[in-house]
Design goal:
The protein is mainly α. The chain has a domain at about 35-65. It has three helices and no strands. It has helices at about 15-25, 30-65, 75-90. The longest helix is centred in the middle third of the chain and has 35 residues, at about 30-65. It starts with 12 loop residues before the first helix and ends in a 6-residue tail after the last helix. The relative contact order is 0.04.
Length: about 100
């Protein structure tokens, strides 16, 4: 095991009871294992959040670089979508 250091943490009675129940049920060998597992999960989620933030910043930059927003006509968009749907229904099935 890598360099292990002891720390003291404060938990609510409910949290401690839940941890002890997991150990008593045989899900974990010790309460320390429960806490280490929870920290590993937190680290993984934290990394995912950081990746999400990085991707959102990239998309935000791309959006800003694409120029100013233009007004859209939802009626025109709906008509275009209906036209495309009709065209797609007319196309022959190439899989057959």
């Amino acid at each position: 095991m890598p360099d292990v250091q002891k720390v003291s943490i404060a938990l609510t009675g409910e949290q401690l009871a839940c941890i002890r129940a997991a150990v008593d049920a045989g899900e974990y060998a010790t309460t320390s294992e429960v806490v280490r597992d929870a920290i590993r999960d937190w680290q993984f989620k934290r990394e995912l959040r950081q990746e999400d933030i990085k991707r959102l910043r990239q998309l935000w930059g791309e959006g800003k670089a694409s120029g100013p927003a233009e007004l859209l006509s939802f009626d025109a968009l709906r008509l275009e979508a209906q036209r495309r749907l009709q065209e797609a229904r007319k196309e022959p099935d190439v899989a057959g």
